[in-house]
Amino acid sequence: MKCPHCGYDDNRVLDTRVQKDGEIRRRRECLNCKRRFTTVEMILKSYPHLIKKDGRREPFSKEKLRRGLRLACMKRDVSLPAIENIVDQICRRVLEHSDKEISSLQVGHWVMEELRKLDDVAYVRFASVYKTFKDVQEFVKTLENESQI
């Protein structure tokens, strides 16, 4: 770790604190110029790839998930912390998945489960994009069947 003030390579750790979100903050002192600075360490999470409906594979994107949830919840009484909570829950489930790849259908199913608990309109909006329907009757029938589960 180079000192941001003088560029010297050696320093000592004065204090270490673990934050709520798993980050580690360290207060350091440069052994050359004696100035202090703070560093933050965090674990880099390796998400599996998504297998899309058409067979394509793409990296899991937390931002894409967040954007889809925001669109589904647009103009609804759903707070940003509630959306972030769902994003965190889905990301946790994706990371717990033992394979290097996961179906986008599985992730979409998890999102629908969470949206159903949160807001009916957001759930319907997401379902209408997530699932492929031939016509409105099939859409209504599918929603009715899932609401009985």
**Span between termini:** 55 Å
For the report, how would you describe the main beta sheet? 3 strands, antiparallel
Mean pLDDT: 89
Number of helices: 5
Percent of residues in helices = 40-55%
How large is the share of residues in beta strands?
15-25%
Give the number of domains.
2
What structural class is derived from the secondary structure elements? alpha+beta
Question: What this model shows, in words?
Answer:
The chain is 44% helix and 20% strand. The protein has helices spanning 62-72, 80-96, 104-118, 120-130, 136-147, and strands spanning 11-18, 24-30, 36-41, 49-51, 57-59, 101-103. Strands 1-2-3 form a three-stranded antiparallel sheet, with no helix packed on it. The chain has a three-stranded mixed sheet with strand order 5-4-6. The mean pLDDT is 89. The protein is of the alpha+beta class. β4 (49-51) and β5 (57-59) form a beta hairpin. The chain folds into two domains: 11-41; 49-147.
Concise summary:
The protein is an alpha+beta fold and 149 residues long. The protein is built from five helices and six strands. It has helices spanning 62-72, 80-96, 104-118, 120-130, 136-147, and strands spanning 11-18, 24-30, 36-41, 49-51, 57-59, 101-103.
Task: Describe this protein with a few key phrases.
three-stranded antiparallel beta sheet; three-stranded mixed beta sheet; 149 residues; alpha+beta; 2 domains; 6 strands
